[in-house]
Amino acid sequence: MLWLIPIFLGMLVGVLRGGSLKSLAQTPIRGVFLVLIGVGFQVALRWIPELYQGPLHSASYLFLLAFLLLNWALPGMPWLVAGTFLNGFVIIANGGKMPVEGTFLKHSLAADGIHGLATPDTRVPFLSDWIVVPYFSGQIQILSPGDLALMVGLFWLVQQQTAAPHPARSA
To answer: Which tops the pLDDT comparison, 112 or 167?
Structure first.
């Protein structure tokens, strides 16, 4: 849910800059099948045996990175690539699970095949989910530094593409 905030803020800023949602909709996106495979792998984690969750989760990041690199020319991509790389790195370093700081795990997703409890043996813990962000109804969201980079990239991409000149107006 928190991921919608940078998207909506990006649309709002783009429109306030004189852009339109039509401009956003005309963003040339390549390799959509790659992101669908990557996200599909992550959704499937809830239903596959735990033995396969780590490798599948790790592999999903390769598809996501390939998608982002294929669209490198779009605004915000350096942030999106950095965030995806950081999240993928910490996940691969920890056997396919995103470590979550123990004191906050009760607020995180349970048994989702994506998250695991951070321990003293957690590798690169500073890249894991440890940043607490309060939002609606007293709930919290636990984010990683990679998630923050992804949000910056999403905001930048959406507002820049919304504010981009519409082909019919640029003549």
So the answer is: 112
